[in-house]
Amino acid sequence: MSASWMIARYEMKRAFRSRWLLLLFLLFVSLAFISIFMTNATSTAQYDGFTRQMASLLNVSLFILPLMTILIGSMLVAGEKEDGQLLLYRTYPISPTALVIGKWLGLFLPLAVMLTLGYGIALVVLSFLMPVRLGLAVAFYLIALLLITLFLSFSLWVGYRMKSRLHAIGVSLFSWAFFVLFYEFLIIALTFLLPSTQIVMVLTVSVFFNPVEIVRVGSILALESGTFFGPSMYDFTIWATSLFGIIAFVIASLAWILVPLLDSIRLVKKGNHL
C-alpha cells in the first residue's frame, strides 16, 4: 500500500469520526434540496436555459462552498503544525509528495461522499413529491464538486503557509472575500480605465485567475446559456464554447488544483513552514 493512500485512509477515518463532517452533510442536504426544488419549481418545459433563479442558486453555492472548503483544509493543516503532528510525519519514511497528496485525498473523498449522499437523498425524496429534472440536479451536483476540488488544494496551501490556526482563519477569510466578493468589483473598476477595444480581452483573461469565476462562467456556458452575458460578450461566448476555449477552461482548472499542491510539496520539503 502506498504511503499516500495510508495517509489518506488515516485522514478519512478521522474525518468520518468528526462532528464537522456531519454538519457538512446537513449543509449539503439542505443545499441539494434547495437547488433541486427551486430549479424544478421555477423552470418550465418550454425553457431549459439559465434563469435568474438558477443564477441565484449558483451564487449560493459559490458563496458557501469556497468558504467551507478553505476553512476546513487550512485549519486542519495549520492545527497539525501547531500540535507538532506534521513534524512527527516528517520523522517517518514518507516523502513530502506522499504526505501532501495523502492529505488532499483524505479530505476530498469524505467531502465528495457527503456531497454525493446529500444530493442523492434530496433527489430520492423530491422525486416522490414532484417531477425532478435530473439533468439540472446533476449539473448543480457537479458544480458543487468542482468548487470543492478547486479550493481544496488552495486551502492546504494556506495551511502549510500559516503558522497557527488563527493565522489560517484570517488568511482563509480574506482569500474567500477576495475571490467571492472583491475580485469582480476590482475587474469592473479596471475596465473603466481601459479603452473599449481591450475590455473583452481583459474580462476573458480575468476569468482564469479566479476559481470562482471559472466555475461561474463555465457553468453558464455548459448550460448553453451564453446569451446570459449579453450582446457585448458575444465574441467571448463564441470563443469560450469553441475547442480552444474549452481547453483553456480545463487547463485553468487543473492549474488551480496542481499549482497549490506542488508549492505545498515544496514547502514541506524545505521544512521552514512546519
TrEMBL record:
Signal peptide: none
Family annotation (Pfam families): ABC2_membrane_2
Keyword Protease: no
GO cellular component: plasma membrane
UniProt keyword annotations, A-Z: Membrane, Transmembrane, Transmembrane helix
Bilayer-crossing regions: 57-79, 100-130, 136-159, 171-193, 236-259
Origin superkingdom: Bacteria
GO molecular function: ABC-type transporter activity
Listed name of the protein: ABC transporter permease subunit
Organism per entry: Savagea serpentis
Source lineage: Bacteria, Bacillati, Bacillota, Bacilli, Bacillales
